[in-house]
Amino acid sequence: MIMKIIVIIPTYNEKENIEKMIPLLEKEIFPQIKNHQLGILIADDSSPDGTKNVVEKFMKEYKNLNLLEGKKAGLGAAYARAMRYAIDKLEAYAVIEFDADFQHDPHDLPRLVAAMDEGYDYVIGSRYIPGGAVPKEWGLDRKLLSKFGGLFARVVWLNFSIHDITSGFKLTKTEYLKKVDLEHLYSKAFAYKLHVLHDVVKMGAKVKEIPIIFYERKEGVSKINKKESFESMFVVLRLKFDDSIRIIKFLFVGGTGFIIQLLLQEGSARIFHVPDWLAVGVGAESAIISNFLINHFWTFNDTHSIKESSNIWVKMVKFNIASLGSIIIQVVAIWLAELVLGPNMHIFGFMLKTRIAILFPTIIFLVIPLNYIIYNKVIWKTQYLKKNLIVEENKVL
Ligand code: GDD
Ligand code: MN
Q1: C-alpha distances out from residue 109 to 8, 11, 105, 157, Å
Q2: Quick one: which atom of ligand 1 is closest to the CA of 44?
Q3: Who surrounds ion ligand 2 at CB < 5 A?
Q4: What's the pTM?
């Protein structure tokens, strides 16, 4: 099928470059991509050098050339605006992010499109896979800075499958871009691309990296400054926090449960003088019920419409079983540890009760992670969240 692909080129004072770039794309590159309909969208921020005039001159000649003007608010702001325009007004099937200054080789464009034709949704021109390269003129500091920025995101996001996170040359199917909140990206500058990449990957887009050589700029000067690396790190962390919000709530609920258990156990024993065994039971079950309710109405409140999941009472029973499971795990772990190590342990010269020494690692490394997995997969079934989203969207399309 013939698809419409829009090459978005943000420009700020790129008169000389755009003068050469537009005819090169139109006359030499686009004709190589025979199976699709290509277009250009120049996102110019009222460049004082009159980049706009050059574009308007070419627009008389090339009908697939579009100009979107704006005030200078940063690279990310320009891209967000242009992507929205490409989706809504130009009805693009895919967009390509592309620099005006010949640092990206226009001859690489057909390979990006070919990867899309192979079935990929998000194609990254990558400098950091075999066959790719950064300018040989770059000094060690530039190279390290660029590498470090990418490494930081990969480590924080625990995503090592993408090698060039900060590449500015990529193709994205708008089917995915439509679901990105372009009007509220966490950066109006360079770091916008980290936000888009994060969201598109999270939606489950099929990603492919193809090697590109990143050249030195031909004319004019770079507009990206050093302080943007700090903003990038901040954006990376903020996105990670968003992704971790459920686990943070889950841990918090666990903490409230502990307090409730203690309060009700001691309250029923001291105020109502119920026997100890009953007080322990009352405390434990109260904590289980309150944990369940807070998790249901807060931590997992986005899962209520999942049709694959059971009703609240069945969930509550499952939750109780999971809690019982946690107790059994702790009992078994301590029993085994005492069997192997005896009732007392020596750690760094201190003597410690084995049951205490083992309790903390068991809870932290076994009980908490296991509960989190069970809550997600078995009780609230968050695995259906993403699937539901895509099925729904497809119906609309
Ligand atoms: N409209 C608009 N507004 N365009 C801008 C702005 C802006 O505020 N800032 C930069 N641009 C345009 C430039 O005119 C150029 O076409 C493109 O965006 C890239 O800007 P450069 O100033 O050349 O950036 P760079 O070479 O330092 O950064 C490049 O390398 C990064 C990877 O290291 C860019 O390609 C990035 O996208 C890339 O990620
Ligand atoms: Mn550049």
Answers
A1: 12, 18, 8, 29
A2: 1
A3: 101, 103, 217
A4: 0.85
